Amino acid sequence: MHIRRVGPGVGLACALLLSPLTQAQWQVDLVEPEEAFYRPGDPYTFALPADLPAEVLQRLSLELDDIDVTAFVRREGEHAIFTPPQALAHGTHRLRLVESLPDGNIVEHALWQVEVRQSQALREAGLQGHADLAGTQRPDDKNVGSHLSSHQRQGSMSLDGRIADDDWQLRTRAGVIHNSRIDQMPNDRRTDLTHGLVEAGKGAVMLRAGDHAIPATSLVMRDFARRGVSGNARMDVLRSELTAFAMRTETIDGFRHGFGAGDSGNRSDGIVLTTQPLTTRPERLQVSALYLNAEGNPLGSSTAGHPQSIRNDAAALAVDSLTFDQTLRLRGEYARSDTDFDGTGTLVGDVYDSAYSLLAHYSHPQRAIRGGAFGWNVGVEHSEVGPWFYSLANPALPSDKRLDRIFSGFTWGGLSLNAQAARETDNVDDDPRIPRLRTDYLTLGGNYTPFRHAAETGVGRLFNGPSFSFIAQRMAQAHSDVPVAFGGHAIDQDTDVVYAGARFSPGNWSWDIAHTRTWFDDAAGLQADYINDLSEFGVDLLLANRLSLSPRIQYNRLDDRDHRVVTRTATVMLGVSASLIPGRLDASLNYALNRERADDDSMDNDSYSVDALLNWTLVQPRENRPGLSLFASGSYFDVRDTSGSNMDLYQIFAGLRIGWPVAY
Hints:
This protein is an all-beta fold. Helices cover about 0% and strands about 60% of the residues. A hairpin with a 6-residue loop joins strand 1 and strand 2. It is globular, with a radius of gyration of 32 Å. The two termini are about 40 Å apart. About 15% of the residues are buried.
């Protein structure tokens, strides 16, 4: 084991002691704690043999959950004491005593399983939270609506509580906001709920009620985060997992609608089953099935039977496989939907349609080439969504689309590149009455962070810590198979974008530069052709750890090629943050100037804004002790347009803020 010094006066920072003779000649024991369990911050004491030679200390190490913690062990007489550098999480941890032999082998001499608990009755019990309340007065203003109150209170509170023991747990999380101006609150309440969730689990079963997401990604359901109730059960013997849910179809906030599952006319019910049927190499086949029965409107403002209410049944079956040492992924999914778009009981009947997707993705194992880690991947994807396919749990999925895509990427040392090419078309049913829109995408992007020795002096020091990035994109859209009777305007347009940027970090400051050029050409003449150039330069500077400056300049040139008009826009921004009295008095200021000019004098606008804040901390917030601070802030905005008219406004605020972190 290694001998290390922790600091002056501490002595040898040794771990546990073993002998080079045989393990039977000595034994290291872990001293039992007084309460038969350990608390998160407790030290661990080991009884050492008294007659071990000092040279054996250099071969021994102590590991906590496979992490070497030898440096945190100290010697006190016949004992070695390990003090964790930070409080350990509740639950079971592993302490391991190992010896590094001269021949390079590692021998395990002892292994202890220790349990960290909150108390004898509960493995874990705790409550964390934070409350903030600010009262603001506006003593002066100009051109601000007179109907607005000059006094305002704003606050927020978050709570996270948890109790657990053995194989069960109960956790609750909630957030509340307050605003004395009811017009700034979403539900005409001065105090309302931002989020709330209760989770209860025992063994492989977990129940949830409140705001949460259903863990499913498919054509039928994606990023489905709503308020409702769900249950999840793992069946390890069958390598399966089952989730059932009843969620509010629309996104809701505040205390409205309780847990969200009480209205059958605005609810999404469903079940998800995932299983790996192969006993050996289960990753080679995973089957997922999903069924959804939903009614409502994801945008809200719908009631059961109302024309804005949608009734929707959808189902999906997906097969996923990892083969060839998990380098090749093959995935296929098929989905069906049955939708009544104008509500139940109407003259329009249900509409049936389908969607499917296929994916093949190969990732080559990483290997070292000339000192850099090299890896690459390539994939192809094909998907088709019918014109009437729809799911209330994935309303963002575009319908009537066929997509073919190929993508690839590789990394080598500090260089990474990604590229893709895709074609998307609509009118997948080949309806002769409507045209087909074809969209082609090409994207190439990369980052390069070279590994090189930093320059110490001279101009070269400005370019230390370099990082480069670039993106090239092309999107071409055109109508094809346009019928004679089509009364709309045919589309034929191209958009090309090229971006290049660099960032350098010479020391306690950094600077960056970037340029973006966009070309837009419309062969159909529906929109004006243009070229747009945007250049940016910025600096982030930290002085004496107390003052930070962030100046930034942007220059934009828009060349309207059809009307032969050039518009130039210059923007200057400056951010300043200062710690005037560390831990007590802080200040910040943000300034922005914007000037916009057109060659034909159709545009001649100037505007600038200033925001400033001064915060004086009277009492620093600490755990279970509130903090108190006073603040003053102000904002000013002025604009002059082409007509020569001016409009300026300002506001000045002063207030008091209380922050209270709690932990039990």
